[in-house]
Amino acid sequence: MNTATDTPTKQQSSVIPMVVIGILFFIFGFVTWLNGSLIPFLKIICELNEFQALFVTFAFYIAYTVMALPMSFLLNRTGYKNGMAIGLGIMVLGSLAFIPAAQSANFVLFLVALFILGTGLTILQTASNPYVVKIGPEKSAAMRISIMGLINKGAGVIVPLVFTAVILADMGDVSEQSIAAMSEAQRAATVSELSNKLVLPYIYMAIALTALIGLVKFSSLPELDLGGEDQEHGEKSSIVHFPQVVLGAVALFAYVGVEVIAGDTIGLYGSGLGVANFASLTSYTMVFMVLGYIIGVTCIPRFISQQQALLGSAIAGSLCIIGVVLGDTSATSIADVLWGWSGIAVIPNSVTFVALMGLAHALVWPSIWPLALDGLGKYTSQGSALLIMGISGGAILPLIFGKVAHVAGDTQVAYLVGLPCYLFILFYALKGHKMRQW
Fold first, then answer.
1. pTM over 0.90
2. Is the pLDDT of residue 154 over 50?
């Protein structure tokens, strides 16, 4: 039997797995980056403040912490391929759970549905990322993950635009200010209509995910066989004895936190500044992330190493945070230069730096995975689960961001939450990934 870790037939046998996993990464992106549009949307229909609205990201991403280790044990029992099908099935249930949530406009039900979706994505992510790392040469793993990231973030560009077109179509000027100005009866009718518009899209999502279960089950996707990768680990009997993966999980915690802050709070920030079409602002961050992944695909490992990409990302991200905090909230000079000539709507300088964070940290995820999984052998599934638990940064750090913004009454200052995150990524790039002993 061919496995993903064999060689000569490898290039031939890796094409179909890459295509199948590429489709899954598109789904990851579509479901994940829908949150950026949902947050300001649910803030309106459920009458939430900034802190409460960011429980959307908490419910979704905390599933990765709660479910990652159970899902890794499930993968060991079912195999990676069957595990991915199970993950898709759980996501179908999560999509259907949006129907009663939307019909009742109940925020708690929305959070339950998001947690179920996050649980399904947990097993998909735990299974698919090692596939991409192990399906070819290790030195080009970041390039392959960049290809997947390109697909993932491409979905992130599309979904806010689709959301705005489908959900807000025929609704006129929908904003907190416009709804607050309505009479009680008119406001209740508008909120009910907005909420019910979520039902049909999630039914379509459930149908699409069900079709993907068949694709995964009946594809020629090979099982990963990592048992033959055993190395001399000495007295290392647990995943916590591998500093490169433990510190890698912390670095991913920091990264996913700032990634979610950049993608999911830009709409809130823009809405507060009165930027038009705030629900589509996530697309700006995603476009810059796509550009970052294109750099990864074309430059790793040909021109830059995985470690150099990580180092550059940490420095660029830190500079973006400074730009957000010190940037002008009304002038649009940076956007005028970067894309104003194209006819695409420009945004204030401070908001532009939030979008540019997408470019700055695009290569963090593809760089950390191969560096952290290096030499784990039979501990790879546990290492993958630990790294997936780092995704909980997307649950916790945006909540901290929301609390700072709410208490300080200043969303712009709250972006300082991202600075220590980029500094830890800088440490991992310089030293953390090289550590083999505590």
1. no
2. yes
